[in-house]
Design a protein that fits this description.
- This protein is mainly α.
- The chain has 22 helices and four strands.
- The strands form two sheets. A two-stranded antiparallel sheet has the order 1-2. It has a two-stranded antiparallel sheet with strand order 3-4.
- A hairpin with a 3-residue loop joins strand 1 and strand 2.
- Helix 3 packs antiparallel against helix 9 and helix 13 packs antiparallel against helix 17.
- The protein is globular.
Length: 652
Amino acid sequence: MGQFFISILIILFGGFFSLVLVRQAKLMKIITVFFLSAGCLWGLMDAVLKLNQPGIAGASFKYLNVFSLAFKMDGLSGFFLVIIFAICLIAAIYSFHYMENSKTALRTAVNYFFFSILIASMALVVTAANIITFMLSWEIMSLSSFFLVIYKHHSAESRKAGYLYFIFSHVGAMFIFAAFGIIYGYTGSFGFEAIGSLPETVKILVFIFSFIGFGSKAGVFPFHVWLPHAHPAAPSHISAVMSGVMIKTGIYGIIKMYILLNLHTPLFGNIVLFAGVISGILGIIYALGQQDLKRLLAYSSVENIGIILIGLGVGMIGVSSKNPLMAVLGFTGGFLHILNHSIFKSLLFMGAGMVLHKTGTRSIDALGGLLKNMKITGLAVIIGSLAICGLPPFNGFVGEFFIYIGGFKGVGLDKSAFVMSCFAIISLAVIGGLALACFTKVIGIAFQGEPRTNAAVNIDEKGPSMLFAMSILACACVLIGIFPKLILWMPVKAVSALGLGIGRVPPEPFGQMAGNITLAATIFLVSVLLVTGIRWFFYRNKTITRSGTWGCGFTQPTVKMQYSGSSYASFILDFFRPAAPLNEDHPKITGRFPLNTYYKSHVNDIAELHMKRVIVNPILFLFDKLRWIQHGDIHLYIGYILLAIILLLFFI
């Protein structure tokens, strides 16, 4: 694993240089971005080689002369390392022109420093080989991302987002600690190898605790409450990394624990699939109700985590039902969606970052007509939107296609597996339809039509590094959608490394299905090009004129007559109102000539709403009553410490 550790050192070296060169902003960015990119590229090449060549690489170091820090790189960790290093490489390039405000040089340097730590810690999490190494890396990852979220610490919104993320990260970590504590209590070992020897009932308890802890990081409903606050608060390249990569460490933890427990009960598959369905449907409903572009994308991440869990749940049900084909298709589809989501969601967050960078607003209703002046950004966001909706010939379709096929393979099984397979198939269809409505809203309201406010007038899309990063990701969405065989070997290798008792995964059926997808995509593209060519031929000599949009009979139409984001989504949200209650604020219109009025609406997240009422408010009330303990007297504080030591002596 020498090459892996070299890449980590290069990345951390870049973060260190950002603080050293803080007084020379441009030089600092050049050197830092160079080292971050070089380290990620080095790590990416090593991960691809390790994934392509079967085998396990490991290393261990003594920590405090007591504990062992152990690392291991296998097929599963190699797959996640490819995603981590690839997306962080693109994000580092994007950040060069995004972080160009010379007045915030110190904050930029600190941001790069914690960015380097985040990249390194994510890589260490997926290669950790024992409990101590895993939890140490996990805590470093959580703390570094907290400091990235509060980049605009002077803003109350950012501070609230940071505190909320901090709380949920450590509540999730407490559940993971509880799971590991149970493991240590039964095995007396910090190694992962002994987990499979636990009693069956203990394994179920450990999986549930682990699922809650890792699900909190992944953004699984209802533990997702931090996510729509944290992602809009962070800089856009950090939002791309957190949404596209960091939340996948939670998925990694769920998969890892499932493998280590080695208990192939239908219960695990049912839990994962049911959580995926709820997260997928409610995530996209809440996304549809958002007017903040980055908040919308954050809720969409909850939806896509749901799709990934549906795929993994289908795979787990296939394993428990002894249906190897269903298992392989479910896991492969889930892994493919992990990879594809990291690409198109990073692309969409970077597109939103360009919009925010140039207009200064995240409000969809304040935009409009952006496609006229932001052609590259607009095209990239359109490609990302088509991909996230699971439409061919883009990469989002490929992973969902395999999950669908895996679900259909379960329809012929017994009652429980049949019901859950049908549940998965119908839910994927509902999620896809709602996603299409959500992202037609984004494109139609923000990028088409006329500018709704001055913020969207006379803007440009300067920033070569930002455009380059988005172009790379957009091309990846198209290439993977047309030629899925280019990357299909990666999830197949990862699934083969899981050791689920289904033997080696043969690549031939996947190659055949990938070939059929390529053939269908080619026919579609040729048809589009043919129709475009015919249209050009018949219109080539005709004069093109420009005129205003038809005003529906109004002689003086204004931009206010366009659809707003709220009006576009209202009919769909009305159907889901029990799960997404709507708060509306507007005065009653009276008289024949009413005065100027206003209308505000807000879709409530039921998890956040009830958690605040049932958990947050009572805890705040309790701690407010205990405020007398903190009185500022150093002598009593020393007394507290001595009392704690005396009490602990009774248990030692």
